Structures are given as structure tokens and as C-alpha cells.
Amino acid sequence: MADQSPTTQITSDPFAAVRIPEYRNLMIGRFCFIMSLRMMGTLVGWWIYQLTKNPLAIGLIGLSEAIPALLLALYSGHVVDSSEKRKLLLRCVFFYLCAAGILLFLTTNITHLGISNTHLSYYIYAVIFGTGVIRSFTGPVFSAMVGTIVPRQYLQNATTWNQSSWLSASVTGHALGGFFIAFFGYSGTLSIICAMLLTALLILYRLKPKPVNAKSGGSKTWESVKEGLAFVFKTKELLGAMAVDMFAVLFGGAVALVPVYASDILKVGSIGFGWLNAASDIGAITVVVLLTIAPMKKAQGRKMLLAVAGFGICVILFGLSRMFFLSFMALMTAGMLDGVSVVVRGTVMQLMTPDNMRGRVSSVSSMFVNSSNELGQFESGVTARLMGTVRAVIFGGCMTLLVVGITWFKAPTLRKFEY
Predict the structure, then answer these.
(1) 53 and 389 in contact (C-beta within 8 Å)?
(2) Where are the alpha helices (DSSP H) in 82-217?
(3) 195 within some domain
């Protein structure tokens, strides 16, 4: 169990956390899992757009995943805190493997006999709805596991490595997803995804059981949920970091419309689509690696807000671009700036959350941030249908700048925050 003493000195060793064998297993297993998720997301976005040629259809993917994630977010936090986390994590990864297997079955010739593109898209949405249920548990349980494995003095370092692992998997999954679609088709790509999920399951199986924290096991469900919400809302720095990230992602979800740009505007095909999808993650992982080696020493809250503002400007540039290289650079720079925000928010959450509430706080964070990815995808699809694709992306970037401006003046605690 991580030491919760507030006087524990934070380590300056950049490799402190990865020297812990169990933490390495968690990161490697999570890497394989997130890489599979990103490959599946890339494939489904491209697949749906090719079936429908409708930007709104891409938005409906996000909505399909966001609805269960939002509805179950608070309950999932209670379940994570009151459950043996290793067993819950293994179940989640197994169910995701089953979902990938269903999608693989939908790519076979058997299912295409007598099934229209419209009905096929409905089946895909149903599977994605199921993955939204699973993801409402996987995010909080992965985050909670970090705090139970890593001592408190290593948590800042572990959080940075955690984000680096996540982003590495994300960029790899996005890029390889596009390549695999081009060379192996949908069935071949989904077969690789299933193999990666099975690998993740086997690696995570090596983790030690995590007994339920004594302070977490006795609360009734609703009381437990209220306790988690109350903690987040009274911790202003944590609430502010979550809120600004949520609105930035909600309105700045330009990546959701990358299939439209790759197919119809930039005309770069599935390989170009994979690279554009990976661009923001390439930028983010570059920054996270730099911050692992040389962490920010002061004014982290102020730097986070400035980074989110720069993210909004990059989204606008992407919306205006008609050149592949410029579009790629805009998304990569946006990812670099988003990486700053991700590290600050993640570190604040790990340092300020007690062990017995990690699941609930992580679930609230997933409501604010993770679900906003899917809702942002839906928002982008709707605005693209109403305004056109280019105007929708520019609108999202402008709204991100507005959110930062409001937060700068209305949340001075976050602006002045340091750790």
C-alpha cells in the first residue's frame, strides 16, 4: 500500500517507479491494452465512415461509447474501491477481448450475406456501446492500481511514466491501425487486436491481488459515491484541472473528424489517416518523455492553462489547413501542448487522492475527461453536419480558447497552483 504521509519527500530519480517489477508489469500490460483500444478506435472510425460517408456517423460512435461511460462512471468508482482490483482488471480486459472478437466476426463473409451497410453499422454501434460499459471500469481500476503499487514518494514519477506508456501505446495503435487496415484489411487488423488483448491479459495476470482497503469496504453504494464527489468538489485544484481539460477536449476534438479530412479533404487514404490520427500522440509522448527527465518545478497550473490555449490555436490551424504536412504538424503541436495538461492533471490527482478513494476519484475524472473524448467526438460530428467539417473544427478551437479565458479569470486557485 502506498505511504500516505504528506511529509514524504518526492523523489527526483527519473527511473524510480520503473524499477518496481510489479509496476513494470502493469505498464506493459496497459501498453498492450491501450494500443489495442487505439487500433480498434482507428479501425471503427474509418470503417463507419466508409460504410456511411456521413461525418455524423463518426460522432455517433463517440455517443455510443459515452452514454454507458457516463451513466456508470460514479458507480464504477465505488465498485473499484470496494473490489479486489486485480480480479476486476482481468475481467475487464477479457470482456474487451470478447468485444473485439465480435467485431472480427462482423468482418467475415458470413455476416455480410444479406446484411446492408446500415444494419452492419448498427451492430458496430452496439459493440462500441458494450466497450463503453467496460471502459467505465478499466480507466479507474488502472489508475487506482498505480497508487496501490507505487510508494507515495514515487507517485509523481509513476504518473509521468504512466502517461508516457499510455501515449506511446496510443500513438503506436493509431499509426499501426492505419497501416494494418491498408495492408491486412479489417479482419486482419482485428485479429492482431485480439492477439494484443490476449497478451495484455497474460501480462496483467502476473500482478498480485490487491485487497480491499478497510476504509472502502463498508460504505453503501450511494454514500460511497457521494463521498467521492464531495472530495473532488472540495479540492478546488483537482476540480479546476478536470474541468478545463474536459471542456478543452469536448470542444477541441478535431481528431474525431480526421477520417473526413484524410478521405475527402486531404485525400491521403488509410495510411495518411493513421499518421494524422497518431500525430497528436506523437507530440504528447515527446513532451511527456521530456517532463519525465526534467519535470516542471513551478507554476504548473499557469503552464497548464497556457498549454490548453495553445492547443485551441493548433486546432484552428488544423481546420484551415489543406496540406498534409501542415495538418500533421498542427496536430502534433496540439498533442505536445495537451501532454503538458495531461501530466499536470494526472499528477494532481495521484498526489491529492487518498488510497481508499482512488477508484471513486478516478471515476469522477473519467466523467470529466475520458467521456468528454467521446462526447467531443459526437459534438464534432453534429457540428460538422450543421456547419460543415472545416467550420466545425474552427468552431471547436475557438470554444477551447474561450474556456481557457474564462478559467483564467474565474479559477485563480488553479492558475496559481504549484506542486
Answers:
(1) no
(2) 85-106, 109-112, 117-149, 155-204
(3) yes
Q: Is residue 73 part of a domain?
A: yes
Residue 337 within any structural domain of the chain: yes
pTM of the model: 0.69
Burial-class residue 52 by CB neighbours within 10 Å (0-12, 13-18, 19+): middle
Domain-located, residue 213: no
Residue 345 sits in a domain of what CATH number?
1.20.1250.20
Residue 156's Cβ-side half-sphere holds a number of Cα atoms within 13 Å equal to: 19
- Whole-angstrom CA distances from 1 to 152, 178, 210, 347 are 9, 41, 9, 18
**Which amino acid would we find at residue 387?**
M
Output the tens digit of pLDDT for each of the chain's 419 residues.
444 443 444 556 677 778 888 989 999 999 999 999 989 988 998 888 888 888 778 778 878 887 887 788 777 777 887 788 899 999 999 999 999 999 999 888 766 666 778 888 889 999 999 998 998 888 888 878 887 888 877 777 787 787 778 777 877 887 788 788 888 889 999 999 999 999 999 999 999 887 776 555 445 556 666 776 777 777 777 777 777 777 776 776 666 788 888 888 888 887 787 788 778 878 877 887 787 777 777 778 888 889 889 999 999 999 999 999 999 999 999 888 888 887 777 777 767 777 667 667 776 776 666 556 666 767 777 788 888 888 888 888 898 888 888 888 877 777 777 76
User: Quick check: 315 and 252 in contact, CB under 8 A?
Assistant: yes
Count of the separate structural domains present in the chain: 1
**Which residue, among 154, 140, 210, has the nearest Cα to 347 in the 3D structure?**
154
